[in-house]
Amino acid sequence: LDSTFDKESWYAPFKHAIEGLTAEQAIWKPSGEATNTIWENVNHLIYYKERLAANLEGREWTHNLDGDETFYLTNQSND
What we know:
This protein is an all-alpha fold. It is 41% helix and 0% strand. The radius of gyration is 14 Å and the shape is flat.
């Protein structure tokens, strides 16, 4: 799990990629584009990392969502 968050690999560590990002930047979406915001992608990553951790630890995972639902786990806000 930490290899994605803060260890160097062939891709930028997630922690460094979002460091200093404001909420306003994270919810920005180009007008007319069918794409996810950074905020939505973070929700998606968190969901699957937590599900993987639960499975590895032998904990029951009861938050079964389809892939699209995982992008909208939290409300986007400028706060």
